[in-house]
Amino acid sequence: MNPQYDFEGQVALVTGAASGMGLAAARAFAQAGAAVVLADVNEAAVRTAAKELTDAGHQAIGVVCDVTDEDQAAAMVQSAVDTYGRLDMAFNNAGIQVPPSDAADETAENFDRVNGVNLRGVWAAQKHELRQMRTQGSGAIVNCSSLGGLVGLPERAAYHASKHGVIGLTKSAAVEYAPRGIRINAVCPGVIETPMVADMLEGQAEAMAAIMSEQPIGRLGQAEEVAAAALWLCSPGASFVIGVALPVDGGYTTH
Which GO terms describe its molecular function (predicted)? Predict the structure, then answer.
């Protein structure tokens, strides 16, 4: 059973919120009493996700945002502030995968695309979240890295570069902003049952089987398990936790 949090009167922002771990986190923040800003590049899906929460009696809005565009990231944060007056928590979860590739054959297009979303997108969202939070003197940010931010795997160089970068971004910003009352951490999900992983399981069955064999718990993770970690990192229970890269990976990175 997940811990119960009281986020009444607080405002949470989640990117990549239309599905998978982002949607699970948005639901969890709402159930804990927060007003939630759901952001996603998929307009129809994010509107549907926000409506699900408002129909259940929660405060929520859906915002269309391509995090690779800094102006859109800034507008996303401004929407939160214009609607709810503040921003207390953020889960920068939006991310993509690219097909596996021999490091010598990786295309610049794929490298730029995966780093544009996974690293630049987190940078842009965090930058504008921090601008609001520093005026308040409080806040908590969780950035989504990956087990790919902690280890190396064949044919994953570009993706792992983006996720290692998220950890560096998180740690440096964390030590800069801790004295200002803002905590920044990262989660590093393992193989989680999401639409993106379902596509990988289907299209890269052999590679995914090898990865799964290294996951000691012997099963896929659930989106709700990553959401639970993100909520804890945003909660008072993690008040002395700064700049961590928390594995949520069923034990994958223990060996």
Answer: glucose 1-dehydrogenase [NAD(P)+] activity
